[in-house]
Each structure stands twice: as C-alpha cells, then as structure tokens.
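Protein 1 of 2
SEQ + STRUCT:
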Amino acid sequence: MKIIFTKGSGKNDRMSIFRDGKEEVIDCPKQKIIPHDMVHYAVESTLHKHGFLGRVRDGEAASFQVVSESESDGVERLVEVFQGDAWSGGDSSPKDMIDLYRVTCRARECPPLPVSPEDILAVRERIEALDQHWRGLSVGESVTLEF
C-alpha cells in the first residue's frame, strides 16, 4: 500500500492511500506536527502493530468509522500519547509516556500493548525523522510512504 501525505495551504493536509488500483483520500486537520495518520505510520511500522493503517491495508475502508478491535484500539491510544508528547516538545521520558499510555488505555477500557522504553525511543526517532522532512516541505509538496 502506498500512502502520500500532501501539505495543504488551508486548515487541512491530505492523505491519499493507493491499494488495489484504487485511491482513497482523507483530509487531515493541521495540528502543527506531522499529520495524525503519519504518526500512525511511525507507530505501526516501527512496532509492527496492526492499527488503522494495517486495517486499511488489509481491506477496510479508509474512514473514521472503524469497529473496535483490541490491538488497533491499543495502537490508537499509543498514537495519541505520541501526539501529546510532540505537542509539548517531544521530550517526555519513555517511562512517563508508558505510564500515560496505561492510564489512557484504562480510561478507554482497552488493553495496553506491551511497550518498552526502547520501543518509545524507536518510534520517537521515526517521528522526528518524518517531522524534519515534513517541516521542510512547501505547500503542495508530498511525502510518499510504503506500508
């Protein structure tokens, strides 16, 4: 599956997903960091977990209306933790992020995925590389990722 993120000029960026000869497009609200689904890419591709992008790759529609599933719910909570960390400077300790992840999972009644401090650092490194590339793009330019 090929994913293209395109930097927009207004309130949204765009994610285009290409699979099985078809394109699906999702508007991604700007959030001052990489798009939400690019954070998904970093988490899912680094940790080899099945979240939103894995579900899309496996045939589900690229929509915001997905049926709850244990592993993808855990991925979504982890993506939220990484987003929150990025919004506040990206320097929370791995232990603090894991603690917040567990609290978030408890609050949303989903089992947390096993995540180590090394996992946190590996995902953060991927997010930082993507963010550096994303910040260097002008409006209309894109990042292409394979998933």
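Protein 2 of 2
SEQ + STRUCT:
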Amino acid sequence: MKTIALIPIVIYTVLIVYLLYLEIRRQNRSKVKQTARDVALGTTNFSIIAIGMTLIGSNLGPADTMGLSEEGAKYGFFFLLFPALAGVQQIITGRFFANKIAEHSNDCLTMGDIMGKTYSSPTKVLVGIFTLVQALAFTGILALAGGQILSSFFDIPLISGILFTAIFVAFYTYLGGMNSVIQTDVLQFYIIFFFAIVALIAAIIILANNWISVDTSVFWRPEKGNFTVRATLNLMIAYFLGEAFLPMYSIRALIVTDKKKASYSFYIFGGFIIIYYAIMMLVGISSNYVNPNSTFSSIAIVNTVSSLFQIVWLKYLIGGFALTALLGLTHSTLDSVLNAGATSFVRDVLGTFVKFSDGQLKNNINISLLVIAIFGTFFSVLSNNLIEILLIGYTVWVPTIVFPFAYSVLFPKKIISRHSAIWGIAGGILGWILSQYVFKDLFVPPMLFGFLCNIIFFFSSEIIIKKWRK
C-alpha cells in the first residue's frame, strides 16, 4: 500500500520535468539569445496573481509547515503572534517599498545593484557576501528538511535525502533559470493551496471528533515554553525583520515594470501566509489528539492529515499528497534561494572586480548556483531544528542589510555619505557580537541590539560627513 503514496510524488516530479522541458524548448526556439537578465529575472510578463503565487511559494517552506505545526502542538495559537509579523511586514513592503524597488527594474538585477547606485562599490560587495552566506544557510535548512521528509518516508539515510533534494532542485533551476523557477513555483503554489485546505478540514474534524476531551488550554499555552521578555523580543524582531527585503523576494519586484503590480503582489503574499500559518498552528494543535503519546516527527503533519481516512488506499494516497506538498514547499523556496544567491554573488561580488560579458555573467551564475547547492548542504549538519537554522539566516541579515537598504529605497536623495551603509553594517555586526558574547545579560536581545546599533552608526556617519562638509 505504501506504493500508492508514491503516485502524487511521481505525478509532481513528472510535471516539474515537463515544465522544464517546455522552458528549454522555448529557449531553443527563441530567436533571441538568452541573457544574464533572463536567467536572473526571467523573460515572461507575469500577472499580479502569478507574482503573488511565486512569492508565496518562495516564502513557505518546511519551517513554516513542519516547524510551525510543532510549535502549535506545544504552545497553541500563542506562537502565531510571531510568524504573523512576517506577513504584516510583507504587506508593509507592498505598501511602501515594492513600488520603489520596481523603479530599478530597467538596470538592476540584485539588491546589491540598487545599493551600489546609492552608496558605493564596497557596499555592493558586502551585500553580495551577506546574500551568499544567507543563501548557504537557507540551502542547509531546505536540504535538511527535504532529507528528513524523504528519509522518514522511504527509510533511506538522511544524507541521501539531503543530497537528492539539493541535486534535484539545482538541476531544474540550472537548466531553466528564473522562468523555470516561477513556473514551478506556480505549480507548487496550487499544491500548497489544496494541501492547506485538506489540512484545515482534517484539523477541524479531528478536534470536532474529540471535542469532549479537548482541553481549551491547548489553544493558548505560553507557559509550556521559556518566553521571557528578552526571548519574546528576539522572536518578534526575527520574524518581523528577518525576511524583510530578502533577495529572493526583492527580485520579484524587479521582475515587473508596473509599480502597482509589484505592490499588490506583496499584499497577496502577506495576507496568504498569515492564513497559512494559522492553519499550520491548528494542525499542530489537532495532532495532539492523533498521537497523544508520541513526539512530533518530521512527517507528523502527514500522519495527521491522512488519519481521517479509514480506507487504507485512500489514507496512503492523501498521505502521499501531503508528503508531495511538503516536498513542493521545500523545492519552491530552495530554487529561489539558489537563483538569488548565485546572481548576487556573481553580480555583486565577482562582478565588482572582474568585468564579465553578458554570456560570461550568465554562465557564472549557473555555475555558482551549483556550487551553492553543494556547499550549502553542509549547513544542514549544524542543527536538527529547522527554526534554529532559520534564525542563523536572520541573524546575518537583520543587523546588517535591512535598514540601509530600506533607507536607500525610500530616501536615496537624502543620503549624504556613500559610506554610511558600510558604517551601519559594521555597527550592526559589532552590536550583535557585543550583545551575544560580552553583554549577555543585556535586556535587549542580540539581533535587536545589532539592528539598533546599525541605525545609530548609519546616522552617525551621515551627521559627521554633513558637519565635515560645512
């Protein structure tokens, strides 16, 4: 019967390969040679809905499904307060930033390009380096998640599952570029959407069938964790700012030339993920009544969804669909991470020192994509907790890039010093290190303290240069 569960996975794999085939055929038939921009940002004029779908696909990953379901099982809807801030932040991005980013779509491929125009070449290099580090960390998260899913279901070694995940996604991203990424993201969105509906129905039915024994406290129990004020602030700042202007999202705004289209796609993005997070929390809560005496495993959500069905073959078929959705979540985020990381490394770091032709730039992006896929898998051995690795990526991003980028997008003409961003990044790193290792008892958590130091150093540089010029 376990073979039945393979049916959705096989169909999904065939569809991915078919979409890749169509994209390669389109490229071969096109009379216009594919450029580096085509690889990085794509060539198709996608609709608002399609861009929203690909943003959702890029955002929702295993940590947002398995990880948040586990947190829901532990703490109920209390933990939703944190990831919901990520959705709020994306709506804010749509309102104030997406249209501004889209203004750079004619001559920019990366965030480094935008910041390099406003600040300096060294700033552009730093953005590329931090983007690369974060891409490696996120690749580790996603490769680990894919490996856990495959090893749990197919009884294969974890390392085999990790390598298969990284190789499969790198393969179709390498061959198809951003067009392939977006097309597969849209397919994966539909899988995610129907999975969320099935998961919601399953959670409601499970709780309804156990309503006599359901303890209302399972819906809100922060007392089960160590939520000190400092820890709570750290989670809030991580979720609210951790995914702000991530390269894999920002380049979606560069894809479109219509500024309103860019904004509305982020509105769709932010609203949907808040709803999705709430559903995953509810699934985690309901899982307490499916296997009350077991620990939350990497495929617990699959077991929860499939537990509704008594017919054995249907049980396995739905379980296979849930498993396919988890793999789709993993792949749809990983392909965007690899594409954004490779483009930024070649364009922002290497391209600052070596002048590449367009063909060389395109080839180097593809090669770097494979290198990131290989070396990024090493991050998967850092921790078995998806949320912990996720916070590594946030730690790199929040105290360094978020504020200087936001300021350069909103107020490019008000910037006085071309080196303010570098001073801000240096202050953010220094603040994070001091808070993490020296002032360990400081009330403000390291990520937030680093972010505040980033702002202080940034404006200090601006003030000093202003006075010096007078």
